[in-house]
Design goal:
CBS-domain, 4-stranded mixed sheet, 7 strands
Length: 128
């Protein structure tokens, strides 16, 4: 079994609290990512995913609101040296699609449920 540090998505995109949701959505579209981390005073405060934005759009709610109002809170984090099985447990328990990865308290990346699925698939089928 692999460690999280082997499959994390490095250099996560971070927006400060107060950023408008429509701005975050444009940034996610422009950079082709499925979530952004939200920071408050240089600390992790939450995460906003495509799923969160879809819920707002489905409710026909105003997209001109702060990311703070839709972010997952408290922020889900896991240490980069934990095992993938630890992340699987967290995904199942929290029903999350993304988890921020930290090292020494600082953010270093993001892990998605899909990343784990791909890792297991290639471990079983062989590498490309």
């Amino acid at each position: 079994m692999s460690k999280i540090s082997h499959i994390l998505l490095p250099n996560p995109v971070v927006v400060p609290t107060g950023t408008k949701l429509n701005e975050a959505a444009r940034l996610m579209n422009k950079t082709k990512i499925s979530c952004v981390l939200v920071s408050r005073n240089h600390s992790l405060a939450g995460i906003v995913s495509v799923e969160d934005i879809m819920h707002i759009v489905a409710e026909r709610a105003d997209m001109d609101i702060a990311v703070d109002r839709v972010m997952h809170f408290p922020e889900l984090t896991i240490d980069s040296q934990k095992w993938l099985s630890d992340a699987i447990t967290m995904f199942e328990r929290c029903k999350a699609s993304h988890i921020a990865v930290v090292e020494h308290g600082g953010k270093v990346g993001i892990i998605r449920g899909d990343d784990i699925l791909h890792t297991y698939r290639f471990d079983k089928e062989g590498s490309c």
